[in-house]
Design goal:
Shape: globular
Strand content: under 5%
Structural class: mainly alpha
Radius of gyration: 21 Å
Oligomer: single chain
Strand order of the largest sheet: 1-3-2
């Protein structure tokens, strides 16, 4: 018998699942957009993203293609890709839709039986934003804000609703992140957000559905108005958003 003949041997090796790598890359880029690690209009490259993620260009290319379809990235030239830019009218529409969906999710979270673990988790996320602001770590503040909101939306108990909200955040997360170009604006914006988050936490703890919707909508709208002023100032010669 040929000892090198493996035709009769049962292999214990698992085939490499390339789709798993592709999905991990996609989820990593998606989370980066949700947390505001990219800025609107920012140029990105397949090779550059692959180097950062420690993978080959192929799964990055596939992930970027999915994000282009979701209007998080766009093909800005034959070989150039960028984060979808800020368009005032589009952003206004996204905000209106977000207020309806996220306000409803907050209502749902407040209508469920009181969950002390949820309340404590929301308080920790909100506290992390304040700690990040004190340390001038704006990326951590953005991450804390994303974690706070999605903790509320997961509590609503509708995975489908969470998926839709996530897609909208892909398009608005980088826009909120633009505020870090103006430290005074960012500090004011997120300190206001912390106070509004406290109201949302109280509303959910008291199972006050109307107050929970009101607080989340106020948070979304107040941030939008500040960002809109920021971009308007930038377009008239003020601080550049990117």
């Amino acid at each position: 018998m040929n000892i090198f003949d493996t035709s009769q041997k049962k292999s214990t090796l698992e085939p490499v699942d390339v789709t798993t790598v592709q999905e991990r890359v996609y989820q990593s880029l998606r989370l980066g957009l949700l947390k505001g690690e990219f800025l609107p209009g920012e140029q990105v490259s397949i090779r550059g993203l692959a180097e950062v993620l420690g993978t080959s260009p192929m799964p990055v290319r596939d992930a970027v293609a999915r994000l282009i379809a979701e209007r998080a990235f766009e093909q800005s030239g034959p070989r150039s890709i960028r984060v979808f830019p800020y368009l005032a009218s589009d952003h206004e529409n996204y905000i209106r839709i977000r207020m309806q969906l996220e306000g409803y999710a907050a209502e749902r979270a407040a209508s469920l039986p009181k969950d002390p673990a949820l309340i404590e988790s929301l308080k920790r996320h909100n506290a992390s934003i304040g700690e990040a602001l004190q340390a001038r770590d704006f990326e951590a503040a953005l991450a804390g804000n994303q974690s706070f909101h999605f903790e509320v939306y997961r509590a609503a108990g509708y995975p489908q609703l969470l998926d839709i909200i996530s897609t909208l955040w892909l398009r608005t997360g980088p826009i909120v992140a633009s505020a870090r170009r103006d430290e005074v604006l960012f500090d004011r914006l997120f300190n206001t957000g912390i106070r509004i988050h406290d109201d949302a936490i109280d509303a959910i703890a008291q199972r006050d559905r109307a107050a929970a919707r009101w607080a989340i909508n106020l948070d979304i709208r107040s941030a939008h108005l500040a960002i809109r002023r920021f971009f308007k100032s930038a377009s008239s010669g003020g601080t550049a958003p990117a």
